[in-house]
Amino acid sequence: MNKLLCALLLLVAVHLSAQKPSASDILKAVDKNMSSGSSISSTRMVVHSQRASRTVASTNYGQGNDKFYSEYTSPPRDKGTKMLKLGTDLWIFDPNTDRTVQISGNMLKQSVMGSDLSYEDFMEESKLFEDYSATIQKESSYDGRECWVLCLIAKRNDVSYYKRIIYVDKQRNVSLYEEWYAKSGKLMKTIKASDVQRIQNRWYPRKIVFKDQLKAGKGTEYYIDEIKFDVSIPKHIFSKAILK
Amino acid sequence: MFQFIIKGIFRDRHRWLFPILIVCAGVVMMVFTLSFMQGYQNSFIRQNARFETGHLKVVTRAYAEMIEQKPYDLAMLNIEDEFKEWQTKYPELSWVQRISFGALLDVPDERGETRAQGQVVGFAVDLLNSKREQELLNLNKALVSGRLPRANGEALMSDAALTRLSIKIGETVTLIGGSVYGAMTMQNLVIVGTVNFGVGALDNGAVIADISDIRQLLDMEQGASEILAFFENGEYNDKVASRVAAEFNAQYSDPEDEFSPKMLTMMQQNNLAYLMGTFSSMMGWMALVFVFIMGIVLWNSGLMNGIRRYGEFGLRLAIGEQKRQVYLGLLSEAFIVGIVGSCIGLVLGLGISLYFNKNGMDVSAYNRNTSILSENMVYTSITLKALVISFIPGVLSTLLGAALAGTAIYKRQTSQLFKELEA
């Protein structure tokens, strides 16, 4: 009788642990869902500043997490501006001056096209699992979806944000809401993802709202109008020659 | 009686030489220090007006809230019509539009790759369509090498920054800044000349370009972060400035609209009202400290002199002079010594101050690491107020010293004075 009871308890325990994945598993699942071998996308960024709102459109090419090329298509003032990221290097080409400038040092803190994203945010290349160790804080509902609330703490000193709180959709493995904190504990940015759709074999948000908590304004809306995953991208796209 | 006292003083070298030397040195120091301080204050006001504040300044209400940070993203845009209206409405003021901004100066090599980079302070003024800014900034005098910009795309930079970044005159550099909407922007400029304003804060690394070029760089159509107004006579008058600002704000400024214009007087900016108040109170305190220190020194001198003259006082009391008369005599002597010492001090102090008024004093070593807007050459400014502030304490301190020392006459018993006389 005792043996039977023990076996039953063991079964229940195994069943329960199978239902509640570990924080690392959740993070890996998020990385798997959001990352791809390559992607081509058309996006619009609506930047709401204190004075006005403006829309910046671009075509983007990504390969893994360390290669990224973006060409701005509107507004006319920014059309032809190109941005290339190769590993830890980032270059901007400005058609008005015909100059290619490497963004480094303090310039990385500057905003991308006036948005709530900095070049430093843009430069983050590792997967979440590689940069952060995670713990499950609680289970909660966000935007009508059941979520895991994870607390991520940076594993290394060179990670831009020491701590992140993320709400991960339990079923879709998409982070729906994030809070990014500095080491001092100050909330730096919030990210809200919505309009999650099935694209190819993954769930992907079509709209993301970034809000720099240190900036006035209503934040930056980022719309992914079109995106294709795991497509073949010509090699020349990720070379400095593309910038001229 | 007066002649008698004068003869008494000047026939005894001990009575006049040391006190006059002390008073004279003190007054010389006071005249020079006050003239220097006044000169420094004038330089400070002038430099602030020319480079920073104007006599009056118009900015947006949002900009005014953070004016120390010069947030050009909160600047006035499309203001040409308003600008013309203000020019017509206030003919007693001359107006200039400016943009101050921070930027990165990127110097390319022959392949277009970055050769050198440095942070610069951008200063956009109307260089091409009006001579007013050239006069205000004294550009012809400040020009060290090259020439002033004659066309769009040309700029000046501070001589020190040009040397630091190894740029040659005629070379093209790229200014990297942020647009009024926050996006990164770039603009190529040809450096045609270098300047040295004698203002540490600007000479460390400034780029001066025409406002139309910078409007393009910062995406500020018909915009200006600051509009400065100057009284035509060149003198700042706080009463008039306050009246004009109040009138302007009542008509044009809307508390509900953070981008509506707001006029600030010079004293409402850069903490100038406080600084000027501090300058004035410093002058007052200096006079007080001067009287106190000189009083102590002359008191000591008077005591020494008094001890030496006990015999004389004893004799005077013996022949029937009252203590009060002896004491008043001592004060009269001190008064005459004070007048003479102060007069000599005034003449000498005036001479030294006039020398520095003409030739100036080089204070560049103190301005090198400061952000205070003051000229590297400070010219003393001699005012009647400074002369009076120096002269009166000169006389007062001598009187105070003698008054304190002379009280010993009352403390001594007549019998004791007679004893000292006999000895």
User: Termini of chain A, distance in Å?
Assistant: 79 Å
User: What form of chain A results from the Cα inertia axes?
Assistant: globular
Please report the number of helical segments of chain B. 16
Cα-atom radius of gyration of chain B: 31 Å
The first-level CATH class of chain A is given as Mainly Beta
Summarize the largest interface: chains and residue counts.
A-B, 25 and 26 residues
- Using only CA atoms, what is the Rg of chain A? 20 Å
Quickly count the domains of chain B: 2
* Order of SSEs of chain A: HHEEEEEEHHEEEEEEE
Helicity range of chain B: 40-55%
Would you tell me the overall average pLDDT of chain B? 86
Strand order of the biggest β-sheet of chain A: 6-5-4-3-2-1-13-12-11-10-9-8-7
What's the overall geometry of chain B? elongated
Textual characterization of the structure:
The complex is a heterodimer of chains A (244) and B (423). With 244 residues, chain A is of the alpha+beta class. Chain A has a single domain, classed as outer membrane lipoprotein receptor (LolB), chain A (Clam), CATH 2.50.20.10. Chain A has four helices and 13 strands. Chain A has helices at residues 2-19, 23-34, 119-123, 128-131, and strands at residues 38-48, 53-63, 67-74, 82-86, 89-94, 99-102, 132-142, 145-154, 163-169, 175-181, 187-199, 202-212, 219-229. A 13-stranded antiparallel β-sheet of chain A has the order 6-5-4-3-2-1-13-12-11-10-9-8-7. The radius of gyration of chain A is 20 Å and the shape is globular. Chain A starts with a helix and ends in a 15-residue tail after the last strand. With 423 residues, chain B is an alpha+beta fold. Chain B has two domains: 2-48 and 274-422, no CATH class; 72-224, no CATH class. Helices cover 55% and strands 19% of the residues of chain B. In chain B, strands 2-3-8-5-7-6 form a six-stranded mixed barrel. In chain B, a hairpin with a 5-residue loop joins strand 6 and strand 7. The radius of gyration of chain B is 31 Å and the shape is elongated. Chains A and B meet through strand 6 of A and strand 2, strand 6 and strand 7 of B.
